[in-house]
Amino acid sequence: MDRARYLDLFVREANRLLDELDGRLVDAAALPAEAPGLMRALHTLKGMAATMTVPEMVLVAHAAEELCERLMAGSISPSEELFSLLGEGADRLRLQVRGLADDEEPI
Fold first, then answer.
1. N or C: which end of the chain has fewer CB atoms below 10 A?
2. What's the first-to-final CA gap in the chain, in angstroms?
3. CA 96, 106, 37: angle at the middle one, nearest 5?
């Protein structure tokens, strides 16, 4: 696939999904209620990143998505640490999207 052809669309949609993630990451107490929406946004980002062959984004989105799955399954509890990890993941994804938009190698 010609990544350059779809890059602008990818960046716009990725930023929309990241804004949605940020809106859902309100505080640790809200994580159980927000987990399904977080997981959907992360899953979509992961698929888009895979299509655009950005494996660094796939790894970050997948790790965050797995945390949401575990939270929904009850194998981990909502906590400040989990909230922080998900926030750091969203920040890393945003940096990766910004780097792609600026024609830099993903980090």
1. N
2. 21
3. 35
